[in-house]
Amino acid sequence: MPYVLPDTWTWDMWFADDGDRYHVFYLKASRALGDPGRRHFHVTVGHAVSDDLRRWREVRDALVVSDDGAFDDLTTWTGSVVRDPDGTWHLFYTGTSRADQGLVQRVGRATSADLYTWEKTSATAAAEADATWYERYDDDAWFDEAWRDPWVFPDADGDGWHMLVTARANHGAPDGRGVVGHATSPDLATWTVGPPLSAPGAGFGQLEVPQLATIDGRDVLVFSCLHGELSEDRRAAGERGGVWSVPVPSPLGPYDVEKATRLTDESLYAGRLVQDRDGAWWLFAFHHVDDAGEFVGALSDPLPVGWSPDGRLHVTDGRFDHLVS
Q1: In degrees rounded to 5, what are phi and psi of residue 311?
Q2: For 160-168, what is the mean pLDDT?
Q3: pTM for the complete prediction?
Q4: pLDDT surpasses 70 at 203
Q5: What gap in Å lies between CA 191 and CA 256, rounded to an integer?
Q6: Cα separations in angstroms, 300 against 4, 30, 151
Q7: In whole angstroms, what is the distance from residue 98 CA to residue 308 CA?
Q8: Could you give the CA distance from residue 44 to residue 40 in angstroms, rounded to a whole number?
Q9: In order of start, what are the domains of the chain with their CATH numbers?
Q10: pLDDT tens digits for range 20-55
């Protein structure tokens, strides 16, 4: 059964495995808000644990907003968790501030010894958009400054760490500026922002919750984009939104996201790939809208994924075989 909290909406999620239990962190907000559109600015980072990726038990929340004056005194949004060689867990997350009216996104970091109790490392951001490559806030081009959903992973050669970020290039048609931003770090504390790993003009206004995975020896990028944030050309061609994937030549790209195909339709969103301890890969997402178009807000059951004969990642139980992108 999906992970449903009766009094709470849950949406974007990310996972960690401590070798004993699986942990899921997710955005959550009270259903007492009434309008699910209000959830984004009344949000907490929740936490649940599982022995099997199917039955979850909620535990104490992981993060809340900081005190006034911090870069994250308005919201704490989507992120990822990694463990460094000394055993410390690092949670990277998106923050927005009251001073910016929530319009400028930055990445922050918190640490934990046990995945349950987290301490933010600074009232200032660990990384933010660099105008050398990325669009800063311009309400004529887009509705916010995108620098969010950090996905952090170790360098394959052991040379530090990489961060993928939902970002927008500073050039090109506004409805197609979505790119995968990139930053690097030697130690998870100090980050240097560099050029994006994908190019603008691929037909996406934004590429949300990017994730890199290696499945059966093949690298793949997963991201999400709704219909309303596709480029005008893609919408005119009849394309719809959902969770997307594209094979990539290496963990650091380049990512040819123009060739992405959909894993799911918009009934599910913010997809994450998770490998279980038996080696199988699964897609999680949150239940986005029902058949009537109403927001749902619950974590999905795991969906099996694998490679199709034509080289696409797909959900192998057949439920999304009707998708054509």
Answers
A1: 85, 15
A2: 98
A3: 0.97
A4: yes
A5: 25
A6: 9, 19, 20
A7: 46
A8: 9
A9: 8-315 (2.115.10.20)
A10: 999 999 999 999 999 999 999 999 999 999 999 999
